[in-house]
Amino acid sequence: MTQNLAADGMIGAARDDRQGRFATLTFEREVAAPVSVLWKAWTDPAARAVWAPPAPSVTVEFLEADTRVGGREISLCKVEGQPDIRCENGWLILQSETRSVNSEVISSEGVTLSAALVTAEVSGGDQRSRLRVTVQLSSLAEDMEAGYRQGFSAGLDNLTGVAERTMLLQRVIRAPRSVVWGAWMNPDTLPQWWGPDGFSCRTSRIDLRAGGEWVFDMIAPDGTVFPNHHRYVAVQPQTRIGYALHWGENGPKHADAWATFEDQDGATKVTLGMVFSSVAEFQDAKGFGAVELGLQTLGKLEQFIVSR
Questions:
Q1: CA torsion sign, 277 to 278 to 282 to 287?
Q2: DSSP codes, the chain
Q3: 157-184 pLDDT, tens per residue?
Q4: Structure pTM?
Q5: Residue 45 pLDDT level (bands cut at 50, 70, 90)
């Protein structure tokens, strides 16, 4: 999942063709977060883009992201002055909050470097959770074992920190997925329901597409104005949205967020996730009632849809 790359050139030295071509690697982490949060941090591209880079010099860019069985995911791992590393994943098994299995093929400049089968097992409860990852690696053009060990180790250390500052909000809305998506991704309707009870929105600019933005003020019942700026990085119709949250237009980023939409017995399960920029911001948000206020926002979405 792109975290298999070491930061210092990413690819280990080649060995004799008869040695080091196959390896089974195992990684385990204890996480101070609920198993539901760990699962979403592991599987959602918006969260993985935050924790997957093994070093600050590395960035991960998702070109495709379809997180479902049979879905494909393509990302680029980038370091200035070095060739991009391409990672192509195929999801084989996704058992929610239990287990995932995916294939992974790594290439660079048209050369396939490795293929792997990655199995993740998740367990735990409402307070703490555990992740065990097994990688069955086949190095093809180069010996990739050292790079995989270093990259996965660093990435999973990052994941542990990300899960501990991730907030998840969920609601099942009594409407088909197409209707819920339409209310969310319509520039005329989104400002009508967004925000907690009693809040209203005043929009400066709105463009709800990948690469677009929404610049707006949230206005509290007492008249207090909260400037907001959402930058959209991914829009997969009727499935998921990924965006960054900023304090006011071009202000500092305080969270990477995503929303997913799933069919559930004729209704739609909406999951809103936020990875805060720091543990302090996460704790501050919990302290001022961000969970309750966020659930109110999803409640307003349902009320808006039902009323129409």
A1: negative
A2: --TT--SSSS-PPP--TTSSSEEEEEEEEEESS-HHHHHHHHH-HHHHHHH--SSTTEEEEEEEE--STT-EEEEEEEETTS--EEEEEEEEEEETTTEEEEEEEEEETTEEEEEEEEEEEEEE-SS-EEEEEEEEEEESSS--HHHHHHHHHHHHHHHHHHHTTEEEEEEEESS-HHHHHHHHS-TTTHHHH-SSTT-EEEEEEE--STT-EEEEEEE-TT--EEEEEEEEEEEETTTEEEEEEEESTT--EEEEEEEEEEEETTEEEEEEEEEESSHHHHHHHHHTTHHHHHHHHHHHHHHHHHH-
A3: 999 999 999 999 999 999 999 999 999 9
A4: 0.85
A5: confident
The CA distances from residue 118 to 98, 133, 182, 303, in Å, are 14, 7, 35, 42
Look at the block and give the residue holding tokens 């093929």: 105
For the stretch 220-267, pLDDT in tens is 999 999 999 999 999 999 999 999 999 999 999 999 999 999 999 999
Is the predicted pLDDT of residue 7 greater than 90, yes or no?
Answer: no
